[in-house]
Amino acid sequence: MDAQENGKEATERPVLLRCPMHWQQIRDKCLYFIETSKPWNDSLADCYTRESSLLLIQDHEELRLIQNLINKRGILFWIGLNFTLSEKNWKWINGSILNSNILHISGDVKEDRCVCISRTQLISELCAAENRWICQKELNLSEVKSYVPPIDWISAGSQREESHP
């Protein structure tokens, strides 16, 4: 293989991904705030179609950052947390149990309850109620292919430019 053919090969280098258009970055997540209202199960399905999940909140600091993005008081957004009767506990959609020492839920703790986030709190709401919702995607490193010309092309081009009067 000669240098010209070698130069046409794509090289791979890690590049930090940006969030897709209309998604907002918080820490290592991309968030999408849905402005229509649906029941919790429908919002869960919608996030899945967007190759994402309903929001999972890791700690109080992340809760505060997300609440700062909610501009208006009184608007509720579904997150990926609901009450499971079998375990009699709040459970995240990834299967983990809510640590109530980290996050506090206001309202009823009973069957058919799901959790919404507002500008000021986390609220227990009937899962059949219609609210907006927040989807999340993880922000990852990815291999991106880019074309890099061979060094001899770069130096040959600068020599050509210098030879012109």
UniProtKB/TrEMBL annotation:
Stretches assigned to the C-type lectin domain: 26-136
Biological process per Gene Ontology, one example term: regulation of natural killer cell mediated cytotoxicity
Keywords assigned: Disulfide bond, Lectin, Membrane, Signal-anchor, Transmembrane, Transmembrane helix
Cellular component terms (Gene Ontology): cell surface; plasma membrane
Matching Pfam families: Lectin_C (PF00059)
PROSITE patterns documented for this protein: C_TYPE_LECTIN_2
PANTHER family recorded: KILLER CELL LECTIN-LIKE RECEPTOR SUBFAMILY B MEMBER 1
Protein name: C-type lectin domain-containing protein
Organism encoding this protein: Capra hircus (Goat)
